[in-house]
Amino acid sequence: MSQGALVKRQFGHRARLVLSPAGVRAADGQAHAARTMWNLLHAWWRMMPKEERTLANADAAIRQARQDIDFLAVLPAQAAQAVLKTYFQAWKNCWEGRANAPDFKGRFRTVMSVDIPQGRDLNITRVHRRWGMATIPKVGRVRFRWTKDLPVGKRAGVENRITGARLIKDVLGWHIAFRVQTLEAEPDPHQGPDVGIDVGVTVPIALSDGETYEHGEWLTGKEQARLLHLEQRAAQRKRHRKPGEPTSRRLHHTYDQIAGMRAKAKRRALDWQHKTTTAIARTYGTVVVEALTIMNMVKSARGTIEAPGKNVAQKSGLNRSIHKEAWGRTVTMLAYKTARMGGTVVEIPAPGTSRRCSACGFTTPGSRESQAVFVCKNPDCGWSGNADHNAARNVLHLYRMGLALIPAAGRAVVRRAKRVKPAAAR
Ligand SMILES: [Zn+2]
Fold this sequence. Notes:
alpha+beta; Nucleotidyltransferase, domain 5; seven-stranded antiparallel sheet; 15 strands; about 40% helix; binds zinc ion
């Protein structure tokens, strides 16, 4: 049997931690200390003249702070170093145009997290079919939910190992996110067909072959009513708070309940997204997506002047906030999932895909009859169909024409664009 080439793969795996009340307090303490460390670092940065903002100086400042401020000592030295590294990386991301400048981290707005940069410190073992154990610095041995075969013990090696982890707290409690590195056989090129995808207005995902992926509301009617009730309660409590008065325990509790409901909706959305992208990556060899631009981002339920949207109010709010971040994540998921299955994701800059007819290629005014319906007004054509399906067909067509090719991920060698005549492409 011939063995294919091996490719390195890096991914994260998140598991739920079981912590004792003391463990939760310890983890909370570490996360607060890590955040304080960040804020001290940021204050130091702003105070320092430009030429003295070096890694060595920052390191010295951190060491001094850990000696001077008692509660910072609860943070393991490795985690403090990780904060330093992340902070400098944040500036690098800013200078290279990927992110905004780092800022102070507020107590209630920040996700609580602690870095464990060294994988070998974790000392992971599997103790049960469903449970693993890991050592967390200054917390001790803790159990976590074993839902994936991790490269530990005899299965670990130089190439297959856990390189680090991060503790993250969300509404369900503390989780551990492992950084896993493996060496796997390179997948055979995917033999599936090409497909274009449009992020729909009437359907969440429309494919060029007519397939659509839809989902209902993330929260049931009852849950939505409860969320509204909680939001109203929070607003009322906020109104009755006198200026300068600290936020009450009750209000904090209501905020937590609201966060819980929103997180539930988000988990359901994420689950749907994972299932959808896995199905697409399994079926198709080349997946063509519209490159993310500002235009896409503002493509909203409101629609255009020609084709105003329906149920605008219902589609805004919670659903929109999930939807907004969803497309970028869909592309990311598709990129790594297709790559694992030997496929490719191609991004094309595709302006006007929703207004152009995918059968004749003309943009005729008024063709987009409504949010859902596209009827070509070209007298020689008259193609009609779902507007999102039409856009997906345009996306695929642009790829087949070889107009623009930006490989997002997947095979190292980009498949040469097939020069297909427009008639044959459709
Ligand atoms: Zn047409």
